Amino acid sequence: MTKEQFVLELEKIGAIKFGSFTLKSGLVSPFYFDLRDMISHPAILEGVVDLLVEKIKDMDFDVITGIPYTALPIASLVAAKLRKPLIYMRKEEKAYGTGNNVIGKFTKGAKCLVIDDLITTGASKNETAEGYEKEGIIVKDFVVVIDRSANGAEELGRQGYKLHSLISLEEIVNLLQVKDLITYEKVQEVREFTTSLSKPAKKEKYVNPLTQKLLDKMNEKKSNLVLSLDVTSQAEFFAMLDKVGEQIVMLKTHVDIIDDYDENFVPKLQEYAKRQNFLIFEDRKFADIGNTVRHQFRNGIYKIADWAEYITVHMVAGELILKGLFEGIENRAAFVLARMSSKGNLLNETYTRKCFDAAKKNPQLVAGFIGHGNSVEDIKRFKAKFPGSEVLMMPGVKKEKGSDAMGQQYITIEDAVVGGADCIIVGRGILKAEDPGAEAKLYRKRAWIAYQERKLK
Ligand code: S5P
Prior knowledge:
With 457 residues, the chain is α/β, with parallel strands linked by helices. The protein has 2 domains: 3-198, Rossmann fold (3-Layer(aba) Sandwich), CATH 3.40.50.2020; 209-456, TIM Barrel, CATH 3.20.20.70. Helix content is 40%, strand content 20%. It is built from 17 helices and 19 strands. The chain has helices at 3-12, 42-56, 71-82, 125-134, 152-158, 169-178, 184-198, 209-221, 234-244, 265-276, 290-298, 320-326, 349-361, 376-384, 413-419, 428-431, 436-456; strands spanning 16-22, 28-33, 63-66, 88-89, 102-103, 111-119, 138-147, 162-168, 225-228, 250-253, 279-286, 310-313, 333-337, 366-370, 391-394, 397-398, 402-403, 409-412, 423-426. The strands form 5 sheets. The chain has an 8-stranded parallel beta barrel with strand order 9-10-11-12-13-14-15-19, surrounded by 6 helices. A 4-stranded parallel sheet has the order 3-6-7-8, with helices on both faces. A 3-stranded mixed sheet has the order 16-18-17. α6 runs antiparallel to α7 (184-198) and α11 (290-298) packs parallel to α12. The longest helix has 21 residues, at 436-456. The protein is elongated, with a radius of gyration of 26 Å. The mean pLDDT is 93. Residues 228, 230, 254, 283, 312, 340-342, 370, 372, 395-396, 408, 425-429 line the site of 6-sulfanyluridine-5'-phosphate.
């Protein structure tokens, strides 16, 4: 079957339609493609498989996958024809048993070619790649049957992937017009529609005032180093600040681990913050229902709301926790834990996406996200999905990659920042050094240089 015959067959079975269709987003589209029924037409199925085989047979890959559901049966036929192993990803992440989310046999480092039916914007393809990359599989190429996007290849290219397509929307409309199956006006309408999609309306980007405050302080102090001062006595706490306070843009506290906390602690901390010119961030990780976190933030011994401009929040209880925390309080904002650094943590991709959704709805309450990643690429993809201009704060950073005995995982200063960390959060890397002052200087210098270089790119 030729490409032209294939398109005409698709039109015949109603898989490609031109008219006026209201999409889920509310937009009215002049065309509608749905390739799901292709599998029930053996001649068409055979046709698309042959065309795909021809397209990819000389490409460099070890395994093939298809994105469920539409592309999976197609990918399995292609894999069999090319004598290449097929693998696929569960649609729901598995939370029990062996935890294997990829079905099929593969070796770590295998290059995987991903088949899908359509590409619209390219925005969702990297989620697929990310899932495989987490399992040690390398994804570089995507092959789609129809590219109906205006700039999908460009979008994927930005994320580090290459898009190949059997047929483009332009080819389809041209062919159908030649065959008198659609009018010239329709073709124009389609073109206008796709160009309008590729040019999102330019909006002034909202910047949370506390995000701005942090960015300003970073530039003023030429530091993106956040010290995690995890010590258990006031004496140690302030002795350490004497050594490193000048190097940091922000101090992260766990106030509840200080054995001899008393009413002198906060005023003294504030005096240091003013003198050494840093911001205060209490890493309290609020996670309860709105009414409870409201009190945990304002009341009790620590009265965190009185002195910490930035706090951490787990979104596990739902986004109304933000209302509970901040209602009636000004000049305070959250860093939402969208990913964690600890081994085996339960924050999966769906959870991360929900954190972004919650922030999108409450931009005035969220200054940034806490996140981590296992490589520069991994962090880049995570950061690319931030809903607005939030900052990425990254713990689990040391001079060398590694881990501790209690699940903490470290990546290097440069990997963190090149990937997208705006600030690095460092605890033991500095606290346990022989000369914490000198070590803080070194972390500060390396992180700041990496940050400047990233911004130049
Ligand atoms: O995912 C996370 C989130 C946070 S806020 N992983 C983390 O390690 N943290 C915090 O960063 C953690 O509570 C600790 O205070 C700091 C890392 O300390 P380090 O000694 O391992 O550098």
